[in-house]
Amino acid sequence: MIEALAPFHFLRPWWLALMLPALGLWWLQRGEVDTTARWRREIAPELLRHLTVGGDRRGWLSPESLFLAGWIVGIVAVAGPTWRQMPSPFAQAARPAMLVLEVRPSMMERDLAPTRLDRARQKMADLLKLREGAPSGLVAYAGSAHLVLPPTPDASVVLSMAGALAPELMPRQGDALADAVKLAADTLAKGGQGGSIVVFADSAPALQDMDSLAPVTLFAIVSPDRADREPSLEAAAGALHGDVVALTLDDADATRIARRLATAGPPPPAPGEEARWVDAGYWLTPLLALLVLAWFRRGWVLA
């Protein structure tokens, strides 16, 4: 029993200080309603008993007593009694991910029907489905890198934004993979929740060794029989300290990446969003309402 009560405490204990004025007012009110108090100094007690009707018999159920009880119950409710915790609804349990999509003319090749870009979007949809509820963001790049969407748990928004991308919309031609990875890493760093980067690309430029500050996975958007003939992706993965995942005809590739995203890097810190104590003061509201109902009784205030 003692162990069960050990977590009990008040979220706002300073409100309990109102107990003192409550007791003071109760004492003053009790003296004012005692009509025989001033006669006790003038008349002998044994005689006063016969001169009054009910003056020396005070019941425990009186307006001033219920007033004190209601005040105490209200103060305890406002002080926030609690004994159990629940997870914060704002705490992030899943690691976020930034999806980096190459939007160059080469992604319009049709060796992967209907196009490489469309197949990349399909694989992105498979990955988001496996990561349902986990936040994902989107970066698009060609000759320059652009943040399309910061991490959000709404997969439909990510897919809608990715579906609107096309090479002719990109302001500059080229292959700014390094800038795109850096932009994705900076976005994750600003979020302060850790996370990983997935690059959807069919090739990669020569990169210098760089630390992206986040785990990187290159999703090779090339036909499965050509995956081992794209040395540029392997070289880029080495420079980014990441891995290459080859495209498959089923969802084995997306499943492999989803598992990696679920465990790669440190777990997301959630400062200030840990489990919170549940305020149980509202449970005292019915009791307070019952005490207030007594004041609707006829003649109660003058009792």
UniProtKB/TrEMBL annotation:
Pfam families: VWA_2
Superkingdom in the source lineage: Bacteria
Xref: InterPro entries: UPF0353/GerABKA_families, VWF_A, vWFA_dom_sf
Key words of the record: Membrane, Transmembrane, Transmembrane helix
Residues that span the membrane, as ranges: 12-28, 66-83
VWFA domain ranges (all copies): 98-203
Protein name, entry field: VWA domain-containing protein
Species for this entry: Ancylobacter mangrovi
